[in-house]
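ok so i was messing around last nite and threw this chain in just to see what happens. nothing serious, just curious
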Amino acid sequence: MTDARHGLTITEVRLTPVLVADPPLLNTQGVHQPYTPRLIIEVATEGGATGLGETYGDTAYLALAQPLAGALTGRSVTDLNGLPELAAEVCGDPPAATGAGAVHVGGLRGVRTAGKLRLSVLSGFEVACLDAWGRTTGLPVHALLGGKVRDRVEFSAYLFYRWAQHPGGRGEPDDWGAALDPAGVVAQARRFADTHGFTSFKLKGGVFPPDEEIAAVRALAAEFPGRPLRLDPNGAWSVPTSCRVADELAGVLEYLEDPTSGTAGMAEVAAALRGARPGASGRAGLPLATNMCVTTFDEIAEAFARDAVQIVLADHHYWGGLRHTRELAAVCRTFGVGLSMHSNTHLGITLAAMTQVAATVPHLDHACDSHYPWQTEDVLTERIGFRDGRVDVSDAPGLGITLDRDRLAALHRRWLADDGGLRDRDDAAAMRHADPGWVTPATPRW
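result:
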């Protein structure tokens, strides 16, 4: 039977950029803006199904999404292997792209090559197509990916140093209060544990001098003995500082994430941690994880050959979708590299997609990251819940979620009303509202 008879032909693609409330979370570059841009993708089919996808909403991504949306009409939602070629054809090389050696600092997303930008956009379209396909056939997305191997997916509490409010009272208020010292970080973690049942904790570092962040990790270990802890300074440290922190927190951390920038620096730290013994593995000591120096398939060979990282934090936006995430998982498994999942500020569509693909990966070695508990706004009729720090894998058709059009419209109106200052994530610009002289710190900071 043809896809037309199955009702799988795409008849319309709708793109809705939104601005979503974000708390004043601190990182090495600055602070999150009061609102962050996301792009909601709807793929409608001849059979009446509409699939949902989500990706970055910054202007560079939106500019690529528009021609790709126009080119999808008349194609089948099952033609996923054709998406990269189609994107290369209609999107071309975006002017916002940089070379393979340049790290995009905005949002700390690793390299910003043309290919990665296209993959970050088409990932949202792939998810929407899978959702529409599943809704049409009555199958969950995990079935279209080969079937689930677990019924629940574990997530980690994502801890941040933060202010009580955005500078000048901008944005949406919340009741979390400030967290600027070990006591504040522990209180934040306790609330996450009590509210969502998280038993694994990750602290976003690179904000304060390393000794202060070491103290915060030790305070977490005292409060939650035996629980997995991670620290991520987003490449803010030098190689010697990275090695010192690793020595200080050996036996305390589950892994250390991107302590220094770049594969070469990570390889140097990993070699030091394993004593530079020929043939020895960094996995014998404190593992290093990354979502910055291995974010494309082109970056895998050098990083794995040099044993620069022992855990890759996948992000289906970076890698081009859920099926590429499974391919990455297979490569990691082949080379004995661990796997977990990275998260940036996102809504429920992304969390649903993460959960569906995570359910299909046999060797998901660590709890996944998720910003979702920080987000007070969503475009779904019902928020996705965490139980014992886990999300139940939906067996409903597609992603198993429902779009709330009123909420979507409200967040889009906020985007329309913006003068352009918030349509691109810029943590340094947000910090200048508190410190007019702030510039993105050079790395290493310490």
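not much to say yet. The first strand starts at residue 10 and ends at 21.
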